[in-house]
Amino acid sequence: MYMEEKQHLQEAEEKRKRTRTGHGFWPHEVLRDSIIFASMLAILLFYAWLIPPPLHGAADPYAQAGFVFPDWYVLFSYGYLRWGEYLPQFVVPTGFIGEIVGQPMFPWNAAWWGAALTGIPVGILALPPFLGGREKRPVEDPWFAAAGAVYLAHIWFISVFSINIFLELYGKNRSDFCKLDSHGDLLCGYREPWIAEVFNSIPWVMTGVLMWIVVYFVGRGLLVRAWGTSFNVAKSRQLLVGALLISTAATVATFDTYDDGFWDAKGLLTIKDYGELEAMRTQPVDVHVHDTNEFTDDRGWSESGVVPTTAFLDWNIYQPARYIITDFADANGHQDAANGINAAAGSQTFNGGEGWSTNGTFSVTEDTTTFPDGHHEEVTSITSDFSCEFRSSERKINDVSTQSMVTTTLVVTNAAGNEVVSFSNCEGATTELTVGTYSYTYDVTVSGALALNDSITTETSFSMKSFQPLLVWNENAPASLAGHTVNLSNAEEMALGGSAFSSIENPTYHTNPKSLDAKLTYAMFIPCVTFGALVFVLLRYMARGYEFEMNKCYGCDLCDDACPVRLFNGGDKLNIIYNTWNNEDDGVPMYSCLTCSACTNACPQLVDYDSYVDIRRSLIVGGPQAEIPHTVLQAVLSAEADEAADVEFVATEDYPITSNIGYYPGCVDYLDQEMVFSHVNEGTMNLGDSTTAAFTLFEEMGTDVSYLGRDFLKCCGHDQKWQGLDEVFEKLKAYNQRKIHESGIDTLVSSCAECFRTFARDYELEDVKVMHTTEFLIEQGFDMNLKSEETTVTYHDPCRLGRQMGIYDEPRDLINAVEGVEIVEMEHHGEDAMCCGVSSMMSCNEDARSLRVSRMEEVRATGAETMLTSCPKCVSHFECLKFEGDEAYEDIEILDVVTFLARQVNEKKAQAVESNVGETVEA
């Protein structure tokens, strides 16, 4: 017997030895730790190389050596400090504390935002010791591990990705970036541009990865519901590739949105007002360097000593709100105030109260000489400035400012006489004018003491300027002119260049001047979530991988002591695991495992051996190499998985569903009724009675439950899953999930422990509560005042219901609710209960028979007349002893708990009928 053998082993003098066929040293752990250590070292060295320029002075000897460790706090908090510049700034009253320290108001500014925000992640580091359940490994708690990854990614981006310390440093030390130093000399970077581009693109690439993950899982969920069994592994892989293509295309197509600093989203707080950017008037111009050097030599500018206009377009941002760069400096010479072309101006000096009034016209042009094809289509109007000024020779007369004694008015009208600009007192104005001719009137009047004093002179002037697009010589112009600003007034230059010039399409159009700050803000959130999602997906995948589960094993052999099969197959549980681990085609021993979870129950590390067995079986080529006695029945169930079999099942709209609670009978019940499974060995049990019994109890309790029979749902797939037939199981699962959701039920009940466990743990029924019948009866308040003749029963805990689902008390509570029934426990019960000996219709052999005999001996030892259980499979397997002609246990009745309760209900009803008949006869 099992316990006798266990005791014998415990008393054995020789120490048991385990034989390993694989490598005793698991290299993947060493590889993992080596990668982590190397990454940490690389980051430290990278920081040490990167940090000296911005954080250490030139006099710092360590900085001069070119190798220092950084000021971690400055590095860490700098990103928050930059972000704090765009958060609300306000003043906080300090109250009585302020009176004490002499500071009644406290300014909460960017510096304090940086300090406060830095404290949040630092404070988070102190939380884990106070959080419960942290003894779990990442694969056991992927959500917590993913949160940690988000945290670490956030720290990385807020530090390494901080603007001046990282991106700007790289951006201004790349070989394709140049600038003028304080002496006017050209300085260019040395590093390859791709380094900056790679680090610049990291946040957006991570966004694409997140999009890939989201598109795949959302698409997978929708397709599984829509297609059911048609959505197989091949289609899942196609969806994975399709999601990759979609996310890649979307990422590439929207990269400019990120690279330009999220212009349309107001730069993620960095753009307060687009008007400020529209007012930017900086423009590229030709620049004479102070002295030539190797940088001007490399670029061919040393001969002229001039850096051309177009070169600066690659280095700086100009007029980001304008598609075509405007010549606000009039470097081209478009404006000719003397002739009223794109400009007008005038000035006058007068004495006392003479005043001045003038008028005239000017034209906003679209010269066909300079713009042969007209203005660019994006140029629909011309920005124009209007201004004036005045001042008197005396600032005050009798302490009154002479400025207050002068009044000016400037009015501009278009050709139709409509006023387009008007202001007084030289307030000035900027407006957009279309091509055409405009008239202006400028009036100056003097009043008060200034008008009476002819000895005081007043000077006044006005100007009107319309700014045409900036013209530069293009690549078709002579080399000496290409890239330079066009000088329309230089006849020699114009003759040399001819018409090889054009306006500039702004390469920095809709580029946020603070794009680096916007990228930092973005990088603090979305890319961090991507890292968390990657870690979660990886850990979920790892959790299904047997190597990572088995890494928890200490080799203490407690699993061997608990394993019932080990006593009969002459092997060692750990030997089986290690051997099959290293020899994937040697899977036969794996099918001796009952997946009863007794080993996991005994394991101090809670290693999930069942999941290991599940995965290993699915990896064995050629299907399960196991002893399956009922091959015909299994073939029938597996055939249901095919899509062609769907027509044999009733559609949801044609099925009578009257309740939000559904009952699934399971396959044992179905096969017993349809194929007389229980009578194969000329037995007398009736497994099909469990469904009838369940509905007897439902009706007695007045609970409306819809029957979801095997003409509506397919097999749950439990046996196929644990035989290693994953593809068959996934098909059954997809079909059943779809039908269950279509049925509209919110509670699914089953008397089969295997079906209950499969629906609850292996299906995705988020909106459906899955319950075993015993659970459901207790929840519904089972109290029927049942009575029975004095009898003693014992209860056998099914592996799937007990150790795997944690349901121990509910069946016992139902039994105890029957008056006259005494329940006694076997030696092994609850978490330590023995298995019935057969799992997933496999290995129904002499080993399994020995286990059943051991269990029946425990039943006999209790003196119980009946053994109750909550699993039809357990009932059938224990009854097999009777079918096999073993008379030793014929006097022990084996029943399902539900059947036992229904029997009491029926007896109660029969007694009531007899009582009524007796009363009628007496009457």
How would you describe what is shown here?
The protein is an alpha/beta fold and 923 residues long. Helix content is 43%, strand content 15%. It has 36 helices and 26 strands. The strands form 9 sheets. It has a 4-stranded antiparallel β-sheet, with no helix packed on it. α31 links the parallel β21 and β22. α8 (142-160) packs antiparallel against α19 (526-543) and α28 crosses α36. The longest helix is centred in the first third of the chain and has 35 residues, at 193-227. 36% of the residues are buried. The model is unreliable at 1-6, 12-29, 49-73, 583-588 and 673-683 (pLDDT under 50).
Mean pLDDT: 81
Strand content: 5-15%
What's the total number of strands?
Answer: 26
- Which sequence of strands runs across the widest sheet? 7-16-9-14
Low-confidence segments, ≥5 residues, pLDDT <50? 1-6, 12-29, 49-73, 583-588, 673-683
- The N- and C-terminal alpha carbons lie at a distance of 62 Å
Task: Report the helical percentage.
Answer: 40-55%
Structural class: alpha/beta
Largest pleated sheet: 4 strands, antiparallel
Count of separate DSSP helical elements: 36
| Radius of gyration over all CA atoms, rounded | 43 Å
- Give the overall shape: elongated
Q: Short description, anyone?
A:
With 923 residues, the protein is α/β, with parallel strands linked by helices. It contains 36 helices and 26 strands.
Topology of this structure?
Elements: H1 2-11, H2 27-50, H3 52-55, H4 61-65, H5 72-84, E1 90-93, H6 95-101, E2 105-108, H7 110-124, H8 142-160, H9 163-171, E3 178-180, E4 186-188, H10 193-227, H11 233-253, H12 255-259, H13 274-278, E5 287-288, H14 294-299, E6 306-307, H15 309-312, E7 343-351, E8 356-364, E9 382-392, E10 396-397, E11 400-401, E12 406-413, E13 419-424, E14 429-433, E15 436-446, H16 448-452, E16 457-467, E17 471-473, H17 491-497, E18 501-503, H18 515-523, H19 526-543, H20 546-550, H21 558-562, H22 566-569, H23 573-582, H24 598-602, H25 609-619, H26 631-639, E19 661-664, H27 667-675, H28 689-701, E20 706-707, H29 718-723, H30 726-743, E21 747-750, H31 753-761, E22 769-772, H32 773-779, E23 787-796, H33 809-816, E24 819-824, H34 846-862, E25 866-869, H35 872-883, E26 893-896, H36 897-922
Parallel strand pairs: 19-20, 19-21, 21-22, 23-24, 23-25, 25-26
Antiparallel strand pairs: 1-2, 3-4, 5-6, 7-16, 8-15, 9-14, 9-16, 10-11, 12-13, 12-15, 17-18
